[in-house]
TrEMBL record:
One of its GO terms (molecular function) is oxidoreductase activity. Its cofactor is FAD. This is FAD-dependent oxidoreductase. PROSITE patterns: FAD_G3PDH_2. It comes from the Archaea. Residues 6-326 form the FAD dependent oxidoreductase domain. Belongs to the FAD-dependent glycerol-3-phosphate dehydrogenase family. The keyword Ion transport does not apply.
Length: 408
């Protein structure tokens, strides 16, 4: 790198790359680094659900509203990075009818389309839906392919002047007189940089990055398993209509179905147990909605680690409420040119990036508005180019390994 960037973004997941794209579109000189390939963290190891917001409607109206707005935005701008499958919420015999009604009413209040359908009608799109299905609600869920989405954002960021450098870990930061003055990066760059501003978008690893600047970002990552099985032509996403629990979602992926997930706290996002009970429970619970998956051949299994912010987890008291994002302006902590953005969902990455870019531009005195909601991503309708970019950025995650390259 021949010059120091205005902004250094640390983390090549969806939030980081989205922030780099947003800033580049506003004319800011951006360098993004990641210790591995792009999409190598949480973003590329999700179940790939494009949330409609229905999952959170009765518990967190604001978070649900963000989801449906961003769902619609991604359908407009992301092309082959998403699939408009639709979704069903499925209530079985032992599930609470009142919960179904609360969710439906909450969706209606927020503006999320939620149409009750007869189970027999639902079987027209999902013939193997469980015999014990009593109530069904149709919602506009979809599927997002994170490797493609991140590659498209990276291409767009580069097209507007950003520099994207995977395999470039941050090794140290120097703070002097209340500012990050130097950042040492290794790997493929091995340079000392002097950015005007630092964005910490390292996800579950954000606490480790912040600590290099003497900052405390208390993360509580949790692991979750995904199991992809052979199942051709599922159609819509299936959600169990109950309080969020293990094994309550089935996501269609062409000739496969992704079953998940669990939620178990971990101490180290790089070193955690991958327990067989999680696989078995996820398959068993998902089979309650879609019985054939119980005996379907397993194609691959993977775990992801959610980048949860510990103070929020403590306040929430556990699983079940929408996991919003947190923008931690470290000026309040004595480091005026750094921000950490943690939490959130893949569906709302663009919103998180826009909020972060707003803050950075305010600090840098840049007068430019966000335009990412109205601009189609580069190569959004060119799957072959997207998949080539995934390879270029070493950005293949397990979530969409069955999809990327299929257009070749």
């Amino acid at each position: 790198m021949s010059h120091d960037p205005d902004v250094l973004v640390v983390g090549g997941g969806a939030t980081g790359i989205g922030t780099a794209r947003d800033l580049a579109l506003r004319g800011v000189d951006v360098l993004l680094v990641d210790r591995g390939g792009l999409c190598s963290g949480t973003s590329g190891r999700s179940h790939g659900l494009l949330h409609s917001g229905a999952r959170y409607a009765e518990a967190d109206a604001e978070g649900a509203r963000e989801c449906i707005e961003e769902n619609r935005t991604l359908r407009r701008i992301a092309g082959a990075c998403v699939a408009e499958t639709g979704g069903l919420f499925v209530s079985l015999a032992d599930d609470d009818d009142e919960y179904f009604e609360r969710k439906r009413a909450a969706c209606e209040e927020i503006g999320i389309p939620a149409e009750p359908v007869d189970p027999d009608t639902a079987r027209e799109s999902v013939p193997n839906l469980a015999d014990g299905t009593e109530r069904v609600m149709r919602v506009p869920d979809g599927v997002v392919y994170p490797s493609r989405l991140i590659a498209a954002n990276a291409l767009d960021a580069e097209a507007h002047g950003a520099t994207i450098r995977p395999h470039t870990p941050v090794e140290s930061m120097t703070v002097d007189d209340g500012r990050v003055t130097e950042v040492r990066v290794g790997g493929e760059m091995a340079e000392t940089l002097a950015p005007e501003y630092v964005v910490n978008a390292a996800g579950a690893w954000a606490g480790q990055v912040a600590a290099m600047a003497g900052l405390d970002v208390d993360m509580q990552p949790t692991r979750g398993v995904m199991v992809s099985v052979e199942y051709d032509g599922l159609g819509p996403v299936l959600n169990r209509c109950r309080d969020p629990d293990d094994g309550d979602i089935v996501v269609p992926h062409g000739s496969e179905a992704v079953l998940g997930t669990t939620s178990v706290p971990v101490n180290d996002p790089d070193d955690y147990e991958q327990a067989r009970w999680e696989v078995e429970r996820s398959v068993e619970e998902c089979a309650a909605m879609l019985p054939p998956v119980a005996d379907a051949p397993v194609v691959r299994e993977w775990w992801g680690v959610r980048p949860l912010y510990a103070p929020d987890e403590a306040e929430r008291g556990g699983r079940g409420i929408s996991r919003g994002f947190f923008q931690l302006d470290h000026a309040a902590d004595g480091v005026e040119n750094a921000v950490s953005v943690v939490g959130g969902k893949l569906t709302t990455y663009r919103l998180m990036a826009a909020s972060t870019a707003d803050l950075v531009c305010d600090r840098l005195g840049v007068d430019a508005d966000c335009s990412t909601a109205d601009r189609e991503l580069v190569a959004a309708d060119d799957p072959e180019r997207l998949d080539a970019a995934v390879a270029e950025f070493d950005g293949q995650g397990p979530t969409d390994a069955d999809v990327v390259g299929e257009s070749d």
